[in-house]
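Hi U.,

Before I forget, here's the chain from the pilot set. I'm dumping it here mostly so it's searchable later in email.
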Amino acid sequence: MKITFGRAAALSGLAALAISVGLNAAPPAPKRIKSTDEFQVHDTPRIDPETAPGRPLWEQNCAICHLGGVPKAPSPAFLGMLAPDAIVTALTSGVMKAQGATLSAEQKVQVAEYLTRTPYASYQRPAPPPRCEGAAAQFDMSDPPAAIGWGHDNRRFVPAGIAGLAKADVPKLKLKWAFAYPAANRARSQPTLGWGTLFVGSQDGTVYAFDPESGCTKWTTRLSAEVRTAIVADAATKRLYFGDLLGKVHALDAMTGQEIWAERMSDHADATITGTPTLGGGMLYVPVSSLEVVQPGNPKYACCSFRGSVVALNPETGKEAWRAWTSGEPKPQGTTAEGAQILGPSGAPVWNSPTYDAKTNRVYFGSGENYSTPADDNSDAVFAVDAKTGLRVWHTQLTMGDAWNVGCMIGLGSCPKENGPDYDVAASPLMIDTGGGARTLVIGQKSGQAWGLDPDTGKIRWETRVGHGGTQGGVHFGMAAEGTRVFVPVNDMADTYDGRVYDEKQRGAGLHALDAVTGKELWFARAPDLCRGRRFCDPGISSAVTAIPGVAFGGHLDGMLRAYDADNGNILWQVDTTQPVRTIDGTMVGGGSMSGPGAAVWQGKVFVNSGYGMYSHMAGKAVLLVYEAAK
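Structure:
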């Protein structure tokens, strides 16, 4: 395994992504940093983009479309994160077959190598998991998927009848089986259970239907791009919905894996889907985010033209019913010292799963920062829109004047004059019943604050600081709730990689429990620091929390999975997911940092992903782990 660090090692993996894959065509990356390879971890040889034979092929045949010339043509930032064989397949027999017709087989491979930095010969797809036979191959129609968790209910609470795991049995959890995702160092798709089947997506675009008992597969379907969201199962239609790296939403037949429809959610080349689509009121609500935030790492890039939105789709056809924009429409705002045009306002991406409320027929969601000057009142805000029309009912801004992009990390003129602080409303809103017909909308923010809002008006009822926050601090992917008790995970890395100094006394890495009525902190379980100097190791919680009666499960950036006592925060059980385990194919594999999705709990088993080797987190193989209480 090769580990090298260059002069700019202090930059985060987000800045690295801008330099490595967002700018791998003319104009070249800034000379101050050679490439991501200078400060990322690799266990395979890497292609030098400066000398790669695929570079001129890309510039002559592909760049004009993928650098903004054609709407919906994904930017290099996304193409560089695809599996090499996915690019070759697209040019040979897929959506880019016509464009690839003039290239030889060797040239298609060279283009793939240039984009992914991966020698094609070193990319080996492992054999697929064993296929199920007999009873294991059948779907249990008496076990429909429950309407819980992302895609249905963002409180992420699993009732006892579904969890099948008593608090007293949590300390007895043992590994049942494990699966190493092929050619993957990150796993962003949360497992979903239904019909006696485990559904989950992977980095290379494969969706798996596993037998939860053994790990054999009932079917597998490979799509073109990484699955970035939870798989949302619809009991009524027997369909699965999810979003991918390229900004597409897919609908699959849950019984066969056959794709029913797929639609891209934005014309913007850098659009993607990070938050899980939500079913409700006969619609599918899709949050749209982007990676344009990394493009200003090129000082000549005209920043920025993306603006966030939530799109309502007809789940039967995938056709758009309405779109609720966050940021205002970008317009020319002048030029940078390097001569690049400034467009704004922009950004305010939506990278949390929307919350549908049947009582008011509204959809609630939060936005991130603006990407460019001027910062408007739509960034770092919470929105309520009418579920039938998408018309805005109210919006409440939590942090004013927040415009930020990767140029700020690198010290470029593309950094907006506001220069952050990059305090996205990151976690999905939680609608909490607080008694007597009253309700509170609980919000988590990267600022290190939790908020209680009136869901009818957006008025702030309470605010509680749970950490110092930062570019990679505060509350990230998801909170959970059991009744009025809300479990708030906090990241708060020791080094946030944003060049700012934070009050160490406010560092809140770990799990907090708050009262949704008052915002009062009930307890705080500070994350034990077991990193012992390991680079890119942090003890905080970035991944979403999952709750069952009396217990909250949290996956930490250092790879620790812990079960916390909901009454006092004591650790009931823990396991180091970075330690090698034997997978169903007989190999020994260890995971890495845990971020993004959280655990799924079903019939006495806990299903969780380990591995999030990006954005200055620990590298490792991506692995699906299944635990069960010992009898």
